[in-house]
Structure formats: structure tokens, C-alpha cells
């Protein structure tokens, strides 16, 4: 039996009974046991983990661990998380009452996707794909609208280029301000009826938990 | 419309599960059915190409 690690939490009661908990230094990991012969790509497993993630966030804010990280036991977890837990605890204490919200806005003029045949190597092609994401922008007027409507409600925000079709705004938002963010999203939809965007969340600490890596 | 909204929500949820959050050094085998597709002894699992590049730059 392996354990898929879902997130890192401040307290054991933030995890149980929604998931099993494993102590790692002075924080706790939420884990779900998975049979060794069950692949991590199993669709039902993905959906199950996604649902558990949502229920855990209802209990308390946690740091999301990217899907796919598994351990056998607490010893292995301690070894693999060595040197990380102090920073995690600091983040969990600082952002205890905050969650992330994401606004994904369609690109104003998506560039053509690079063609593999135009590149001498796979590495060059991958680089070109990445570079293409960095040229994406949203309509300037819409961006100003976003920054006037949503950003003031967030405690931190960051624009992120993930693909060639959209730009993402990640926001750290106080739990008490979730309704305000959703209302602001509705206002944005009314003010910019022709600008496609998706406001989603709340999410656990994902983008802002990675600050120390960037 | 509600069906479409549910679909978007599911896609968005899976996108966050697979492409966000802290990455801890580890390894995993990603399989469909009984066939292993990828073995990654790196810092990333089941990510799209952009995510792979972003991670490699960190």
C-alpha cells in the first residue's frame, strides 16, 4: 500500500477524519492509501483525491502538494520533506485565514502554436512552446477592469502565463472576502460581457506556497 | 448550461490537482490500465509541457 500525499496542514484535526494524517516534523500531511497495483492515473482515483482536497479545504487552509507524490510511511515522508517543513509551517500560520482564487482570462490574440517540424530538436520545440506562452496578453481595457475590480480585494496577486490561450490571475484572498470576490466577478462579467473569463476557487495554497522556490 | 458549468468545474479542479501546488522530490509511475506511460524520477508528475518547462527553470 502506498499513500498519495494531498497536502500539508497545520494541525492533525485539519486533516482527520476526511483523510489520514502523517506527522512530519511540526506539520501534518494528509494522505490517502492506494493499493500498489492501482495506477496513479486511474480516473476514479483522481476524482476521489480532488473531492477529498475540496473537503479538506472546507476544514482549514492547507498547502497543496502536486498530485503524484507518494510515500510508504512517515519515515519516507520525513526524509523527502527534510528542510521544507519550517517554511511550510510559517506559510500555514501566515495564511491560515486565506485561500487562493483564480481568474483565467482568454488571450486577446492567441499566437499560432509552434510547429514541431520547424525546430531542429525536441528541446528547441519545448522552449518555443514555453516562449509562446509568455507573449500572451489580455485586452488592456479588460485587464484594467480586472485590476480595479478584483485585485483590491486580494491580499496578494500574481499574473501567470501558463498556456497560449489564456492568462491567469492568481489571488490570495481572505476567507471572509470570498463573497466580495464572487460579487466582483459578476460585476466584471456585466461590465465586460464580451470578454471570456473563468473565476474559480477557493483553492488551497498552490501558487503562493511556491514563493520560496521562485 | 448547468452541465457545461459542471464540466468546467471538473476540468478546472483536475487542472489544479495536476498542475499546481508544491512539488516534492519524488517519483511516480503514471499508468493507464496496466500500461505504464511515464516514469518520472524527477520533481514533477503528470504535468503538461508548459509545466515541465516551468519546473525545469526553477
Please characterize this protein's 3D structure.
The complex is a heterodimer of chains A (214) and B (58). Chain A is an alpha+beta fold. In chain A, the strands form two sheets. In chain A, strands 1, 2, 3, 4 and 5 form a five-stranded antiparallel β-sheet that branches. In chain A, strands 7-8-6-9 form a four-stranded antiparallel β-sheet, covered by helices on one side. Helix content of chain A is 33%, strand content 26%. The longest helix of chain A has 17 residues. Chain A contains six helices and nine strands; from the N terminus they run E-E-E-H-E-E-H-H-E-H-H-E-E-H-E. With 58 residues, chain B is of the alpha+beta class. Chain B has a domain of 37 residues. In chain B, 47% of the residues lie in helices and 19% in strands. Chain B contains two helices and two strands. Chain B has a two-stranded antiparallel sheet with strand order 1-2. In chain B, strand 1 and strand 2 form a beta hairpin. The longest helix of chain B has 18 residues. The termini of chain B are far apart. The relative contact order of chain B is 0.14. At the A-B interface, strand 1, helix 1, strand 4, strand 5 and helix 4 of A face helix 1, strand 1, strand 2 and helix 2 of B.
How many H/I helices of chain A?
6
What is the number of E strands of chain A?
9
**Which fold name corresponds to the CATH topology of the largest domain in chain A?**
Alpha-Beta Plaits
Q: How much of the residues of chain A is beta strand, in percent? A: 25-35%
Principal-axis shape of chain A equals: globular
CATH top level assignment of the largest domain in chain A: Alpha Beta
Overall 3D geometry of chain B?
elongated
Largest sheet of chain A: 5 strands, antiparallel
Give the key terms.
heterodimer; A: 214 residues; alpha+beta; Alpha-Beta Plaits; 2 domains; 5-stranded antiparallel β-sheet; 4-stranded antiparallel β-sheet; 6 helices; globular; B: 58 residues; two-stranded antiparallel sheet
Amino acid at each position: 500500500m502506498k499513500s498519495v500525499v494531498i497536502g500539508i496542514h497545520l494541525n492533525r484535526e485539519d486533516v482527520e477524519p476526511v483523510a489520514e494524517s502523517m506527522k512530519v516534523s511540526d506539520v501534518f500531511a494528509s494522505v490517502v492509501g492506494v493499493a500498489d497495483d492501482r495506477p496513479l492515473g486511474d480516473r476514479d482515483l483522481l476524482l476521489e483525491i480532488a473531492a477529498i482536497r475540496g473537503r479538506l479545504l472546507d476544514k482549514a487552509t492547507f498547502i497543496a502538494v502536486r498530485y503524484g507524490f507518494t510515500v510508504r510511511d512517515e519515515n519516507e515522508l520525513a526524509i523527502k520533506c527534510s528542510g521544507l517543513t519550517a517554511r511550510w509551517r510559517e506559510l500555514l500560520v501566515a495564511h491560515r485565514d486565506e485561500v487562493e482564487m483564480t481568474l483565467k482570462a482568454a488571450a486577446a490574440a492567441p499566437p499560432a502554436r509552434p510547429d514541431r517540424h520547424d525546430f531542429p530538436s525536441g528541446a528547441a520545440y519545448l522552449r518555443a512552446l514555453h516562449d509562446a506562452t509568455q507573449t500572451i496578453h489580455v485586452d488592456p481595457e479588460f485587464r484594467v477592469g480586472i485590476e480595479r475590480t478584483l485585485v483590491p480585494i486580494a491580499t496578494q496577486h500574481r499574473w501567470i502565463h501558463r498556456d497560449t490561450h489564456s492568462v491567469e490571475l492568481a489571488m490570495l484572498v481572505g476567507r471572509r472576502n470570498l463573497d466580495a470576490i464572487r460579487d466582483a466577478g459578476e460585476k466584471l462579467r456585466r461590465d465586460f460581457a464580451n470578454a471570456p473569463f473563468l473565476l474559480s476557487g477557493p483553492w488551497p495554497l498552490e501558487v503562493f506556497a511556491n514563493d520560496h522556490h521562485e | 448550461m448547468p452541465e457545461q458549468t459542471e464540466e468546467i468545474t471538473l476540468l478546472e479542479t483536475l487542472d489544479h490537482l495536476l498542475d499546481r501546488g508544491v512539488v516534492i522530490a519524488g517519483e511516480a509511475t503514471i499508468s493507464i490500465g496496466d500500461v505504464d506511460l511515464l516514469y518520472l524520477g524527477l520533481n514533477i508528475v503528470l504535468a503538461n509541457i508548459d509545466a515541465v518547462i516551468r519546473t525545469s527553470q526553477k
